[in-house]
């Protein structure tokens, strides 16, 4: 059966100190902390979700912060750059903002677009590009007004150890369309209007090393639970070892590692992040799955407190 994902659902990365993480993604980039929960597989570690006003699919940047985590090395088998998209005409605002807040950046040019490339405090490689497509964010925070805010993902640059095989997966499993090739990169596009542009190295890259400042996995969108079951069958039919369907509270997930070494997830658009707290207070309270609620005091005691705050240099 032919399947086509709309694009990126979320991207999840390793970082170190959780407050530094919140200060960068909320304080500098102006994203909303929409969910504060834990890594269900490592209960002493937060799982923090940032995005637009509700963390819509295609906007959710998520993190596993672990104080004192060793720094990783970005390379093959990983997402190399996470691309954020802003409205047309907003790139100058972001240049000025990064200068104001002391974030070093450089300009990069590919496929007739200009990107601002920079790192977060853990060395995670990020970039901002302006494009027409995709709904505007309705979230304003600190010095970032809604009309200049990050809309969500523009896409990503994938670093593959076997790019021909990764491209085959993008095309024949995920249903992306090849639309260009330039400067050692090949560009693919999905059907959605956010998280829809994927660039990948044309030549093999050496393996990266997981750790703070690297991406753990990239997730692709499935419409709902019925579609998700079909995605699992579809991935398995292409010869991948795919996990069972896992309940992540805010979406259902399956995982498989494509042959270029990158961990792929397929996640449902539903139910979203307003299932266990109201829109007005998203991200304010630590949310735990029902099976851990009786251990809340213990779980919270293992986590460093975090606060969403406007940075001093932004006041």
TrEMBL record:
Name of the protein: Ring-cleaving dioxygenase
GO molecular function, one term: dioxygenase activity
Source organism per UniProt: Paenibacillus sacheonensis
InterPro entries documented for this protein: Extradiol_RC_dioxygenase, Glyas_Bleomycin-R_OHBP_Dase, Glyas_Fos-R_dOase_dom, VOC_core
Domain VOC: 7-131, 152-269
PANTHER family given in the database record: RING-CLEAVING DIOXYGENASE MHQE-RELATED
Keywords, comma-separated and alphabetical: Dioxygenase, Oxidoreductase
Pfam families given in the database record: Glyoxalase
CDD domains the record matches: PcpA_C_like
